[in-house]
Amino acid sequence: MKAEVRERFDSYPRQIKPLILELRELVFSVVEDLNLGEIDESLKWGEPSYQVKGGSPVRMDWKSKSPNQYCLFFHCQTKLVDTFRELYSDVLEFEGNRAIVLHTNKNLPKTVIRHCIEMAMRYKKIKHLPLLGA
């Protein structure tokens, strides 16, 4: 992990850091399981960001103004969040066309989040498919 990314993770409150690290672990697991190659891990707008060749970047963060939420962000000019909303509106909460909102007091729906990350990491290959091939 790059020093600036580690510093960002270390800056999260004690109860938030494991939640954000769990999202990071899911990203790395998806990329490894799908054999998508090298992950570019960096900070974008001060938030941990992950991208692979052929994919759309995924960012994650927690903000003190919404202390009981943390988010997984996607490029707003893709069909990703609209597709997630169509597939998973019964399970997930969204912020516009850019984020999945997760709650600190609820279990992470890992299978659903994993599928969303998979679609983002494969986006350029699936963007022409109905519901992104879901």
Concise description?
This protein is α+β, with helices and mostly antiparallel strands.
Could you characterize what this model shows?
There is one protein chain. This protein is an alpha+beta fold and 134 residues long. The protein has one domain: Aspartate Aminotransferase, domain 1. The protein is built from 5 helices and 6 strands, in the order ααββββαββαα. The chain has helices at 3-11, 17-33, 80-88, 110-121, 123-126; strands spanning 40-44, 47-51, 58-62, 69-74, 93-95, 99-103. The chain has a 6-stranded antiparallel beta sheet. A hairpin with a 6-residue loop joins β2 and β3. α2 packs across α4 (110-121).
Helix content: 25-40%
What Rg do the Cα atoms give? Answer: 14 Å
SS elements, strand count: 6
What is the fold-level CATH name, i.e. the topology? Aspartate Aminotransferase, domain 1
- What's the pLDDT, averaged over the residues? 94
Count of alpha/pi helices: 5
Distance between the termini: 31 Å
Q: What are the low-pLDDT stretches, counting only 5+ consecutive residues below 50? A: none
List keywords for this structure.
single chain; Aspartate Aminotransferase, domain 1; 6 strands; alpha+beta; six-stranded antiparallel β-sheet; 22% strand; 134 residues
